[in-house]
Amino acid sequence: MADLTVGIAGIGTFFPAQIETAADLVERTGIPEDVLREKMGIRQRHTAGDADTVTEMATRAARQALQRAGVDPEQIDLVISHGSEYKDHLIWNAAAKIQHNLGAVNAYAFEMYALCAGAPIAMNTAKALMLADERLRYVLLAAGSRENDLISLSNPRARFMFNFGAGGSAMLLERGARTNIILGASAITDGSLSETVILTREADALDGDEALGDLRGRLDVTDTAYMADRLGAVSLPNFIRVIREAVERSGAGLADVAFLGITHMKRSFYLEILGSIGLTPDQSVYLEDYGHVQSVDQVLALELGLAQGKVRPGDLVVLAGAGTGYTWSAVALRWG
Fold first, then answer.
1. How far is CA 269 from CA 91, 102, 229, 264, in A?
2. CATH number reported for the structural domain that contains residue 37 in this entry
3. What domain range includes position 203?
4. Mean pLDDT, to the nearest integer, of 20-48?
C-alpha cells in the first residue's frame, strides 16, 4: 500500500462562449469599472446559456481530459461530481448524468459537495478510495458551475460574489500512476460561518422573478458585519495552515512550493496569500479573465500554469480553495 500512487492522467476545462466584461457590469452593480477590474479582479467572466447546464459543461471538460489522457470512457471505474448543487435538477445525482453522457458504462457515480473548497477534497477522497480498492484504476472528477445565476448584481450584500462565472472542469486520476502524483492534503472548517451565505427570498436579494426553474431565491449574506469580521480574522491563517499542512504531509516545506493554483478572490487578498507563503505572482495564475467558477478554479489554474510555462516537470504544486460553510482546503502534487 505504501508504494502505491495516484496521479493525474489528464485534465480538461470548458467555458461558455458568452463573456461579460467589467464594463458590462458597471451599470448593474453600480461599481466603477476600475474597481471591478483592479480591486475585485474581474476583467471578464463567462456566463452560461440555456444549453450550458452544469452536467453539460462538466461532460465537455471530461471529454477533453479523457482525450488528453488517451483513455476510453469504458475504462473509467468511478465518476465523482464535485460541482455546484445548483444543477440541472433539484435533489438529483449529477454524476450519473455525466457518466451517461460520457458512455462510462462500467463506472458507478456519486456526488460530493464542499462548495468552492471541493476540488482538493475530492482529489484526496478519490485517492483514498483508489488506494483502498484495487478495482479503481481510473476515477474521473468532474465539476460544473453557473452559480452567477444565483447572484443579484443589485444586492450590495452579495458584492463579494459578483466575480462568479460559469464553466466546467475535469481531472482523470490513475491508480499506480508514475507522473503527476497526488501527495498530501489538508482541510479545516469554521462552522460558525455555516449560515452566513444562504439562499433567501429577501426582496432586495432577488433579481426580478424569484424562480430559476425549480429553484426559488438568490444567494445572500445574512450578517455582513459578522462575516466580514470573522473572515478577516481567520481566512488568511486558515489558508496558510491548509497549504502548509498539505505540503508538510508531502514530506516538503513551503520553500519547496513552485506553483500555487488557488480560487479566484479579490486581488489584494490573493497577493497577501502569495506573500505569506513566500511566493510571487510569477508562481501562480490570477483568474481575472474567468472569475470565480466554484471548484473549477483549481484545474483551470493548473491548466493555465502549464500553458504559461509556470508549471514544469518536477515542480511541487499546491491547489487550494475556500468555500462558504466555511471550509479551506489544499492538496499538493508533484508534477511530471
1. 35, 38, 15, 10
2. 3.40.47.10
3. 183-334
4. 97
